[in-house]
Specification:
Layout (H helix, E strand, L loop, with lengths): L2 E5 L2 E4 L4 E8 L8 E6 L6 E6 L6 E3 L7 E6 L4 E6 L8 E7 L18 E6 L1
Parallel strand pairs: 2-10
Antiparallel strand pairs: 1-3, 3-8, 4-5, 4-9, 5-6, 7-8, 9-10
Amino acid sequence: QVQLVESGGGLVQAGDSLRLSCAASGLYFSRYAMGWFRQAPGKEREFVSAISTSGIFTNYADSVKGRFTISRDNAKNTLYLQMNSLKPEDTAVYYCAVINYATRTPPNGMDYWGKGTLVTVSS
């Protein structure tokens, strides 16, 4: 079955950087666009970033544009999110997912989620 395992979260100070990873298994990773989402305490899960199958195309939520960089290594079935200049409002549990690049949502029948990784940014 499809498994997505996020890692790399932690407690950092404002202005610091973190690199999240998502190890995927049970699917032809290179055939799917992938994305990152986050859910802050008391809030709904929101889109963060998406990347096309080849990695050539990327898009970002306005709140992270210019600070976060999404990438992927299809040979390793791994998705990454480099987060720089972190802000307290970036505090959330971060999830990776298979995504429809155009709609920024999981495609029908591919609604898989890992346990996420917690990022806490102190001021």
